[in-house]
Design goal:
454 residues, alpha+beta, 6-stranded antiparallel sheet
Length: 454
């Protein structure tokens, strides 16, 4: 279960060699000049291999990133100068090939990626490393790269990144007083379900969809739901730790007599969405934990780190798939609850995350090619008396899992002009506080560990 990444196998992007990268400025230059310090390189001649050879960049996991129209893509820089996209494992020959591929997933009409202006290495644009190389090895070259390829992207990419993205890690270390998101955020506008119509392969799978009410589709909610406050506390904590999307399972019990689904435990997945190697072991561990506690799998949760807590088209399909799999081959009905948490969306009220329980109603039989209908689920939240040792242990394991990661949230950064990210997290979690207020001293220990994760 989870927000499932594309299942395509790793492939080498064909027909896009380093020497064939598009020219951002449109100049007609000779691409056959051999790279090396002894000759004057053209813009195309300075490749990632050149920068690696001369020590301006180093290979590493997750050191490359692209921010485009509210989406973030993360890549590994390989020792041969190629780029491996973390999400799918695909390998690309150049920044332009990777940037073009990623941007077309978000905007199919995009014709080029302007790779060197769009791809960042450890938070800084690759084009800046080209400039550094020229200044070091060819100071007499009359090629200015300071703004190479940036003009085309400014209105579409840089503005969007500034409005919806986190400030980069390197900049945070120097400027902790900069708020996470600049004022004037441009929201991703969700669409109404009735505007979708039949499936369209060209439609953006990340398009958000407003939730319907059961009453709006002439239905009654077919089950009741009760959720423990400790479940909300743990999943809210998990979603706050990283700028990447997270996933977890929900454990509980289903009572067929009362038609009551009780959600008693959250089980965070301490793995990356694209890490198919570790996922089976993580899932097996969670299944064993469910069995040992006498619980059943009753749902899943995931985060939309900087966006509204509403399902995307991909989420709708995943939820429908989970519902069918959880029900199994038996004819008996058992619901599967989906929960989306939006921790860092500035459209939220106050510091609290928006937490949205939802379910998907299958499309009408006469319209089998339509998307399922996402509906809001009414939930009763049950206040726990105390913070269990299981929850505390899971929180500490999560801190250790994300410690030092490139996508770890900068907790000293400002969330708003008056509130740090850490204070925002504390405020959000306080809404799920156990009745026993002694928990606050325990959580302070967890928060102190957060401060030491960078």
């Amino acid at each position: 279960m989870g927000s499932e990444p594309p299942s395509s196998p790793p492939v080498l992007e064909e027909g896009v060699e380093e020497e064939e990268e598009e020219l951002s400025g449109g100049e007609d230059v000779d691409t056959r000049v051999p790279p090396g310090r002894g000759s004057v390189l053209t813009r195309r001649g300075i490749t990632l291999r050149v920068l690696l050879k001369d020590g301006l960049v180093e290979p590493g996991d997750g050191v490359l990133s692209i921010h485009y129209l509210g989406k973030k893509f993360v890549g590994d820089l390989l020792s041969d100068g190629k780029i491996r996209w973390v999400e799918t494992g695909q390998v690309f020959n150049s920044p332009s090939a990777w940037a073009t591929h990623c941007k077309r997933l978000v905007n199919p009409a995009k014709k080029s990626g302007c790779g060197w202006a769009s791809v960042r290495y450890r938070g800084h644009k690759l084009v800046q490393y080209k400039t550094s190389w020229l200044q070091k090895y060819q100071p007499s070259a009359e090629v200015s790269l300071a703004s190479e390829g940036e003009d085309e992207e400014m209105g579409e990419e840089e503005e969007e990144e500034g409005k919806t993205g986190l400030v980069t890690e390197d900049k945070n270390r120097k400027q902790d007083n900069i708020p996470m998101v600049r004022r004037g955020d441009r929201d991703r506008v969700p669409v109404r379900y009735c505007t979708l119509g039949s499936r369209d392969s060209g439609r953006d799978p990340h398009m958000l969809v407003e939730l319907s009410a059961f009453s709006a589709i002439n239905r009654f909610q077919p089950f009741n739901v009760a959720v423990s406050s400790n479940v909300l506390l743990l999943l809210d904590f998990h979603c706050h730790l990283t700028t990447s999307e997270v996933v977890g399972y929900l454990g509980g019990r289903w009572d067929t007599n009362t038609q009551l689904l009780t959600v008693l435990r959250a089980f965070p997945c301490r793995s990356r969405l694209a890490d198919r190697d570790s996922a089976p072991a993580v899932e097996e561990e969670i299944c064993q934990n469910l069995f040992m506690r006498g619980l059943s799998l009753v749902g899943w949760y995931h985060s939309h780190p900087r966006g509204p807590a509403l399902p995307s088209l991909q989420d709708i399909d995943s939820q429908m798939d989970h519902q069918l799999r959880l029900q199994g081959s038996s004819n008996g009905f058992q619901p599967c609850l989906g929960i989306i948490c939006g921790p860092y969306y500035h459209g939220n009220q106050g510091v609290a995350s928006t937490i949205t329980p939802f379910w998907v109603v299958p499309p009408p039989e006469q319209r089998p090619n339509d998307y399922g209908i996402p509906v809001a689920v009414e939930v009763t939240y049950v206040q726990d008396n105390f913070l269990t040792s299981d929850v505390l242990n899971e929180m500490m394991l999560l801190v250790e899992f994300y410690r030092g990661a490139a996508d770890l949230v900068q907790f000293s950064q400002l969330w708003s002009p008056e509130t740090s990210v850490l204070e925002k997290i504390k405020g959000s979690l306080s809404g799920h506080a156990p009745k026993d207020q002694a928990y606050s001293q325990i959580l302070e220990h967890v928060y102190s560990q957060l401060s030491n994760t960078h």
